[in-house]
Amino acid sequence: MMIRALALGATVLLLSAGCSVDNARLAAAQYQRGADLYGIRCAYCHEVEGAIGVELSARVLGQYESAGRLFRYLKLAMPYDNPGSLPDEDHWAIAAYLLTDRRLAVLDSPLSPSGADTVGLN
Q: Within 10 A of 70 (CB to CB), how many other CB atoms are there?
Protein backbone atom coordinates (compact mmCIF):
# COMPACT_ATOMS: atom_id res chain seq x y z
CA MET A 1 0.00 0.00 0.00
CA MET A 2 2.76 2.44 0.95
CA ILE A 3 4.73 1.67 -2.23
CA ARG A 4 1.64 2.40 -4.36
CA ALA A 5 1.24 5.73 -2.58
CA LEU A 6 4.89 6.50 -3.29
CA ALA A 7 4.43 5.63 -6.97
CA LEU A 8 1.40 7.90 -7.14
CA GLY A 9 3.44 10.63 -5.46
CA ALA A 10 6.21 10.13 -8.01
CA THR A 11 3.68 10.48 -10.83
CA VAL A 12 2.31 13.71 -9.35
CA LEU A 13 5.87 15.05 -8.98
CA LEU A 14 6.65 14.17 -12.58
CA LEU A 15 3.48 15.72 -13.93
CA SER A 16 4.01 18.87 -11.93
CA ALA A 17 7.55 19.08 -13.33
CA GLY A 18 5.99 19.52 -16.79
CA CYS A 19 6.90 16.25 -18.48
CA SER A 20 4.63 14.44 -20.88
CA VAL A 21 1.96 12.10 -19.57
CA ASP A 22 3.51 9.14 -21.45
CA ASN A 23 6.96 9.80 -20.00
CA ALA A 24 5.43 10.30 -16.55
CA ARG A 25 3.63 6.95 -16.77
CA LEU A 26 6.79 5.18 -17.94
CA ALA A 27 8.86 6.81 -15.20
CA ALA A 28 6.23 5.91 -12.57
CA ALA A 29 6.15 2.31 -13.82
CA GLN A 30 9.95 2.14 -13.64
CA TYR A 31 9.84 3.62 -10.13
CA GLN A 32 7.27 1.00 -9.06
CA ARG A 33 9.32 -1.82 -10.56
CA GLY A 34 12.40 -0.46 -8.79
CA ALA A 35 10.55 -0.26 -5.48
CA ASP A 36 9.39 -3.86 -5.84
CA LEU A 37 12.86 -5.08 -6.82
CA TYR A 38 14.48 -3.12 -3.99
CA GLY A 39 12.11 -4.75 -1.53
CA ILE A 40 12.93 -8.21 -2.86
CA ARG A 41 16.63 -7.96 -3.73
CA CYS A 42 18.10 -5.12 -1.64
CA ALA A 43 16.15 -4.41 1.53
CA TYR A 44 17.33 -7.52 3.35
CA CYS A 45 20.85 -6.02 3.39
CA HIS A 46 20.08 -2.30 3.50
CA GLU A 47 16.89 -1.96 5.55
CA VAL A 48 17.39 -4.46 8.37
CA GLU A 49 19.11 -3.38 11.56
CA GLY A 50 22.48 -5.09 11.86
CA ALA A 51 22.51 -6.23 8.23
CA ILE A 52 25.67 -6.00 6.15
CA GLY A 53 24.60 -3.17 3.83
CA VAL A 54 24.78 0.50 4.74
CA GLU A 55 21.64 2.59 4.92
CA LEU A 56 21.11 4.04 1.45
CA SER A 57 20.47 7.60 2.55
CA ALA A 58 20.53 10.61 0.26
CA ARG A 59 23.99 11.46 1.63
CA VAL A 60 25.39 8.02 0.76
CA LEU A 61 23.80 7.89 -2.71
CA GLY A 62 24.76 11.48 -3.48
CA GLN A 63 28.42 10.46 -3.39
CA TYR A 64 27.93 8.77 -6.78
CA GLU A 65 27.37 12.23 -8.32
CA SER A 66 25.28 11.00 -11.28
CA ALA A 67 22.65 8.40 -12.08
CA GLY A 68 25.04 6.80 -14.55
CA ARG A 69 27.74 6.29 -11.93
CA LEU A 70 25.19 4.82 -9.50
CA PHE A 71 23.96 2.43 -12.19
CA ARG A 72 27.49 1.29 -13.00
CA TYR A 73 28.19 0.59 -9.33
CA LEU A 74 24.94 -1.35 -8.93
CA LYS A 75 25.71 -3.40 -12.03
CA LEU A 76 29.25 -4.15 -10.89
CA ALA A 77 28.63 -4.93 -7.22
CA MET A 78 24.96 -5.64 -6.52
CA PRO A 79 23.26 -7.66 -5.31
CA TYR A 80 25.97 -8.45 -2.81
CA ASP A 81 25.32 -12.19 -2.84
CA ASN A 82 25.38 -12.43 -6.65
CA PRO A 83 26.85 -9.31 -8.30
CA GLY A 84 25.82 -8.64 -11.87
CA SER A 85 23.05 -11.24 -11.82
CA LEU A 86 20.26 -8.77 -12.53
CA PRO A 87 19.51 -7.51 -16.03
CA ASP A 88 20.34 -3.88 -16.80
CA GLU A 89 16.63 -3.01 -16.82
CA ASP A 90 16.37 -4.05 -13.16
CA HIS A 91 19.43 -2.02 -12.16
CA TRP A 92 18.00 1.05 -13.95
CA ALA A 93 14.69 0.57 -12.14
CA ILE A 94 16.35 0.23 -8.74
CA ALA A 95 18.47 3.32 -9.41
CA ALA A 96 15.38 5.29 -10.48
CA TYR A 97 13.55 4.19 -7.33
CA LEU A 98 16.44 5.14 -5.04
CA LEU A 99 17.04 8.53 -6.66
CA THR A 100 13.36 9.45 -6.64
CA ASP A 101 12.59 8.03 -3.20
CA ARG A 102 15.58 9.79 -1.61
CA ARG A 103 14.68 12.99 -3.48
CA LEU A 104 18.02 13.19 -5.24
CA ALA A 105 16.54 13.59 -8.71
CA VAL A 106 13.23 14.37 -10.37
CA LEU A 107 13.02 12.03 -13.33
CA ASP A 108 10.81 13.29 -16.16
CA SER A 109 11.31 10.07 -18.11
CA PRO A 110 12.54 6.56 -17.33
CA LEU A 111 16.18 6.35 -16.32
CA SER A 112 18.31 4.82 -19.09
CA PRO A 113 21.84 4.94 -20.52
CA SER A 114 20.82 7.91 -22.65
CA GLY A 115 21.65 10.93 -20.54
CA ALA A 116 22.12 9.11 -17.23
CA ASP A 117 25.49 10.76 -16.68
CA THR A 118 23.81 14.17 -16.92
CA VAL A 119 21.31 13.34 -14.15
CA GLY A 120 23.10 14.92 -11.21
CA LEU A 121 22.33 13.90 -7.68
CA ASN A 122 21.27 16.93 -5.64
A: 26
